[in-house]
Amino acid sequence: MSLVELIAQADERGLAASGLACLDRCVPLLGGDDEVLRPLWANLASGGEPAEWGELLDQVRGKLGIAEVMDDEDVEDEAALLARRMLAAAPAVRSAGEARIWADACSVASLQIHRLLDPAEDDTPAEELSSVRAVGAPVAGRQEGMSPLVAAELRRQVSVLELLAGHGAGGLRRALEVSTEGRRVLRAVVSRRARGRG
Hints:
There is one protein chain. The protein has one domain. Helices cover 62% and strands 0% of the residues. The protein has helices at 3-9, 12-25, 38-44, 53-64, 78-88, 96-117, 129-132, 148-167, 172-197. The chain is mostly helical and 198 residues long. Helix 2 packs antiparallel against helix 8. The chain has 9 helices and no strands.
């Protein structure tokens, strides 16, 4: 099943987890530590109170110095700007309608971020990343013209949605593991890029 189809069929928890996982993998661009989004993950677990989502979100934004309305001119790096926009656009209410819009936007933004950061050549134009999501994720390696970093991100996005669709709240732990793996990869890429610029 394609990423677009999985997002269309996901429930509220799956959609929120999908958007949160994309954001989690991009935390290295926000200057946050690996635990900064943990309260939001906990809120998605069984027993988490949906009404507390907005307050937890505000706390995360405060820690990272990101407001709901931001001045794009403050951020010169395009990848970092996309990551900041993901957090700024997160819905204050955990409803399926708002979460679906956010999850969809986060999916595209995260793929674009990985495309921007991948040192390998990526022949996929930015405007075609949306259509890439309409086909199945690459099983191994890369799809034609798609860099390894983007192909791996596409697989992770599909995996998170499949885990939540198949196991509900029980799939959260594995979804977090998938996201943590992706965050480590991106942190290494960001670190290498910083050394290269320095």
